[in-house]
Each structure stands twice: as structure tokens, then as C-alpha cells.
Design a protein that fits this description.
Length: 73
């Protein structure tokens, strides 16, 4: 869990605040949603299945979220 926390905490503002807010919003949607670190990125899983992740665009330095599967939920 420390590596996951470090991902968020090592970011510069305003990215850190944005990513932490997105994390909180996503996790509040359902008790079955968990946050894990995979491939160096925070992924969100619903009942153990990955459904989206957060990342920072390397050139634009802006956060984005992406669905892992096209037909999820």
C-alpha cells in the first residue's frame, strides 16, 4: 500500500490534489471498489476486476482516467 500512497503523494500540485480527489470520488461510489498499483499506475477494481486507472499525460502533464475494458458495467 505504501507504493500506492507514494504515487499520489509524490505528485506536484495541482496534480496531487486532482488525483487524490478523483481517487476519493471513485472509491466512494461502492464498497466493492478497491485501489491497487499495477504497472506503476493506480488502478481501480470492482469485485476484483480492473475497470479504470489514473495516469498523467507525459507531454501535457495533465491527469486522465481511462476505462480498462470497453464493455465494463
Amino acid at each position: 500500500m505504501k507504493q500506492l500512497d507514494d504515487f499520489y503523494l509524490k505528485q506536484q500540485e495541482p496534480l496531487k490534489g486532482t488525483l487524490l480527489a478523483l481517487k476519493e470520488i471513485i472509491l466512494k461510489q461502492d464498497n466493492n471498489i478497491t485501489n491497487v498499483l499495477k504497472y506503476g499506475m493506480p488502478f481501480f477494481c470492482y469485485k476484483g476486476k480492473m475497470f479504470c486507472y489514473l495516469w498523467i499525460h507525459k507531454k501535457l502533464k495533465k491527469p486522465y482516467t481511462r476505462n480498462c475494458r470497453r464493455n465494463s458495467f
